[in-house]
Task: structure prediction
Amino acid sequence: MFIDGKWKKAVSGAEFGVFNPATGDLIDRVPDAGPRDVADAINAADKAFPSWSSLTAYQRSQYLYTAWKLMLDRKEDLARTMTLEQGKPLAAARNEIQYGADFLLWFAEEAKRVYGQTIPSARPDQRFIVLKQALGVVGAITPWNYPVSMITRKLAPALAAGCTVVLKPAEATPLCALEMFKIFEAAQFPPGVVNLVTTLDPKPVGQAFVSNPIVRKLTFTGSTQVGKLLAREAAGNMKRISLELGGHAPFIVYDDADPVHAAKGAVLVKFLNTGQACISPNRIFVPRHMVDAFTREFTMRVMAMKPGNGMDAGVKIGPLVGPEALLKVEKQVKDALDKGAKLIAGGRRLTEGALSNGYFYAPTVLTHVTREMLIFREETFGPVAPIIAYDPEEDVIEMANDTVYGLAAYVYTKSTSRAMTAFERLRFGIIGINDINPTSAAAPFGGMKDSGMGREGSREGINEYLETKLGGFSI
Ligand code: ADP
Result:
């Protein structure tokens, strides 16, 4: 762990193992933090806050810029650690490192653009000035599916704003976090500005973040269930929160869309990270008369994607993260088939040869999916593509919005009018119009409804770590 500028074991000496989801092999062991370690990290962040927040924005920017350069220098090693620990194909891991590095550069620049305001007063003797100031110590909790970019997406704006941070990464992917902290160490961030605690049981650390009065803000990416739990507890102590939670993205194909282009896009985004993404399409809506043609094209492309160990050349689909993920996928597929869905491809675990010790599930296509099925409601987080026929067109926006989630949605059409109508009516925070990658460090990422609150990246991202302070001056 990295606490107060030093590498440390847990006070208790406890450790836990990190495993490769493609092979089941033990990769390494890391410290298992207890309450003492977390308190030490929070205290270190508290001690570092006054001087870090007093640096000029230009000085803080320089640290982030150095970390950005180091991250790009170490891109290949970071990508390999990610594939080993998380399972995604190496090419996808490289893309994630680039995306993760983008946040360091973006917020190195945004640090210099934290503007206040002057406001005219109705009183001739009065002046109003609004300051934006760092809000204090931040507790950050990140998930395993994007184990590097979710760290920089939170830490870069927090550090740029002048906050100090304690990070708790997911228990499945602490090694990516350790590698990132080696970069922060090499960039010579002052002691206590960035702190890392690794732990197998996230509950005590989550508790410390929401209950310790020093922590002023919790930023969390993970499941809606845990996000709500933490939000409830944070509310009791009036802490600021940002939550990036689950999703259930609709992918709407209109009947003027090119079915080949739409199928190509749908396959690429559905099977990205083996479906383990909060912006993964979970319901693919196709006009009833186009379902056969679309499904043929879609399935042909699915069958061409090779599952396997992400380290192997040509592999496009890696393993799921663990056994529970497999069980969830199996449950949803069984429920759908029991209720009348048709299995077009996949629908089973992959256990042949080298796959036998990993958590592999065949890329799966279902048609005849209806609103009664679990898969229409629950996030799948796996390589299953449910195709839903719609008819008439007027129904599809209502069907797409029929979810408690509101993160990402995708629309394929050549009509500007349909595109604009869908863009305006869909209740989701991120809409891809003929575009399967509507994400960038420069663009706001976040959801509505049960998908959370707050935005990461973009000009908005840094606001999550700032307080607004008004000065009224009588002259
Ligand atoms: P997922 O289903 O994607 O693993 P989780 O919400 O369980 O989503 O995990 C996301 C992050 O939240 C991880 O870092 C995990 O350790 C952490 N986490 C899970 N449960 C809790 C909890 N009760 N308190 C604090 N953090 C938690």
The chain is about 40% helix and 25% strand. The longest strand covers residues 126-134.
